[in-house]
Write the structure tokens for this entry.
Amino acid sequence: MQVSPCFSEKPKIAVVGLGYVGLPLAVALSKAFEDVIGFDSNPARIRDLQHGIDKTGAVGQKSFLRQTSVSPAMPKIFQGQNLFIVAVPTPLDAAHRPDLGALSKASETIGGIMQPGSVVCYESTVYPGVTEDICRIHPRKDIGTQTRHRFLSWLLS
């Protein structure tokens, strides 16, 4: 497989949020790349996945168990990853405003461990401006001003 010009080596992929979007994405990516790690903040979801149970029915049990690693400890396991895909829920509240709490927390955590040259891709559904206004402020402060300005937030539709 050809390596993208964004990476000097094969990407080490971390998928944050293992729901009906993140889990199938992690499994599909693990078929093409060796180093794919999945994380979900729900301990019950992690336990189910570690036992081969996917209550969303998004992937086959055997496919999941063979292809993807999962963990309840995001910062520790994501050290060394260089492509982060965030697929967390953004549910609407009673006033039809999205709850961006999970997205903000994921961005803050990833920003605290990402290295220069990392790529962060947002798969979560958000309104225009969220990746720039909410997520962009989270990269590590100790990696230098020039690198922080080059922090990438991608919104896939």
Q: What stands out?
A: The two ends are 25 Å apart (CA to CA).
